[in-house]
Fold this sequence. Notes:
The chain is an alpha/beta fold.
Amino acid sequence: MLTLLVINFRSAMIAFSERRRLTVAVFAFIVTTLLFLTLHQTHATEAIRVRIGIGQNSENTGYSKLSNDIYRTGTGFTNGSAPFLANGKGRFAYVTFLSGTVDGPKDLEEDNYFVATRILVWQLLHKPETRTNGIDVVVMVTPSVSESRRARLAKDGAIIHAVDFLHVENDQWIHAAQHRWDDVTTKLRAWEMTQYSRILMLDGDTMLRLPLDGVFDDKGAKVRQTKNQNTYTPLEGEAPLPGTYLLGSLSEVWDCTHDFPPKDDTDLKKISKMNAGFMLLAPSLPAFDYYRSLLNMTDAFDPKDPEQNLLNHAHRWDGPMPWTEVNHKWNIRCPTEKDFKKGLVSMHEKWWTQPYLYENENVKDFLRAQRWEMKGWYDAWDLRYA
Ligand SMILES: *[C@@H]1O[C@H](CO)[C@@H](O)[C@H](O)[C@H]1NC(C)=O
Ligand SMILES: *[C@@H]1O[C@H](CO)[C@@H](O)[C@H](O)[C@H]1NC(C)=O
């Protein structure tokens, strides 16, 4: 009886441990399969990157850091995500603005501003010498940008952020001034993109020579406290000042005769006037509301270059929120061969026309070459992987 019991017990144990072994075996199989698939995927992905020359420059320590390139869908604007990561690091973005009224032939290849935007996206995301190490690349598009343009930019790897034109009740006084600039005030919508802690806003006709990521560490790129916020008396219709703000930028040079870095007294048009083609900002709804209130106040600023003059007014150097200067190496207009030799990182200059670069032939060649390098890169990419 006892023997029978022992035998029964033993066979039960064997059955049990066999079942457990089976469970373990199934589990191990699943884990191994998943591991294999993950590794295989990574290898395949790396193989593609190697094939197209991504991740080959010496400054990159590994492929794993390259989260921000061809594998994004191009449409997933990260709505609702937090501007700071769990480790306290801010989420950053490069944002460029595109609107149809600026320049809009039917043939995309003939649309110079559109092509310039593609060059910028390509340089920021793909070109080994200039691409970012993980910062989002966003194109803000207005309703006047065609579907074909949006689709092409998304295919190129950009995040497409569609916005409506920015209007307030009493802004006729701005829009009457110069038709061409009708929609540039919409650029101010970058301040609404609060899923990012900081943004570098670049005009579409910006070209990179070197990576720009370091600009976020510039001492002019820090969020500041508004001065005398409590004693400031707003004008009629002016919204309350935001408690903190960031506007980091550069004053414009006169022309190609500047030194590098340019000298305040002789080379810069006006030391306290910033250029809205290159702006570091911290998205903030209070700041956005403040700017909207200025758009709403007739003659609050000179409406000639609306968004640039509005910001120069809101962030005047003798006001409560003075804008900050970043190092001139990050960006310049009228770039010269000397600037290139001295380490200029990016420039505000068109690839299709450079009437003021004079004898700087190497710079002109560089600008024109980017257009065709970009085109060739994407043509090859489309052929092989589209
Ligand atoms: C992001 O959110 C805004 C406002 O909630 C919405 O209008 C927009 O369509 C969203 N964008 C995407 C890509 O989901
Ligand atoms: C613009 O001004 C009108 C009054 O003229 C006011 O009702 C409206 O709220 C203002 N809008 C903004 C964005 O400040």
